[in-house]
Amino acid sequence: MIETQRLLMRPWRDDDVVPFQAICSDPAVMATLGPPLDSEQTAALIERMRGIDAAHGHCFWALERRDDARLIGWCGAIRGSVGPVADKPEIGWRLASDCWGRGYATEAAKAAVAWVFDNLADEAVWAITWRGNVRSRAVMERLGMQHAETCDFDHPRLTEGDPLRPHVAYSLDRASWGHA
């Protein structure tokens, strides 16, 4: 578990499916990520994270608010699987829309970056998002990440013509982390 002042990143539990599905079915949340997920798809996504955690010791963990134990999303690090982040530590987050604008994503992402640099030997951490996702890009920039323009790519899991296909890549090297 990773604790910050207001948040807890923890392993996934069976009872996380319902609250996480509420997040993953919110059109505002999914507007920059893809189609809303149903309960079965959400459960499969959580199982995928559990498998990644078991194999690598980290994943996009359940993100819980400490003051009320509410699951408000996910945050953490995985081994990237596409484009410029393939096999690199990729940080990511997804938050309930009523939790936006409160600094939770930045707080959790800072802890995830610190975890990567404290626990993995990689020299940089990466993040990707749809080109138009200004909220996530702002979090990346608050972390001190730099837009790696030469690494921007069309997401291979999205079909030609999908408006969410153009992705940007950001990175932060270990040496710069202490200065962010």
Any idea what the CATH superfamily is called?
A: Gcn5-related N-acetyltransferase (GNAT)
- Widest beta sheet: strand line-up: 1-2-3-4-5
Question: For the report, how would you describe the main beta sheet?
Answer: 5 strands, antiparallel
**Helix/sheet category:** alpha+beta
CATH topology grouping = Aminopeptidase
Helical amount: 25-40%
Number of strands: 9
Rg, nearest Å: 15 Å
Domain N-acetyltransferase: 7-175
Protein name: GNAT family N-acetyltransferase
Pfam family, one: Acetyltransf_3
Organism: Sphingopyxis jiangsuensis
How would you characterize this protein structure?
The protein has helices spanning 17-24, 27-30, 39-56, 104-119, 134-142, 174-177, and strands at residues 2-3, 7-10, 60-65, 71-79, 89-95, 124-130, 146-147, 153-154, 166-173. With 180 residues, it is α+β, with helices and mostly antiparallel strands. The strands form 2 sheets. It has a 5-stranded antiparallel β-sheet with strand order 1-2-3-4-5, sandwiched between helices. α1 (17-24) crosses α3 (39-56). It is globular. The mean pLDDT is 96. It comes from Sphingopyxis jiangsuensis. This is GNAT family N-acetyltransferase. Residues 7-175 form the N-acetyltransferase domain. It holds the Pfam family Acetyltransf_3.
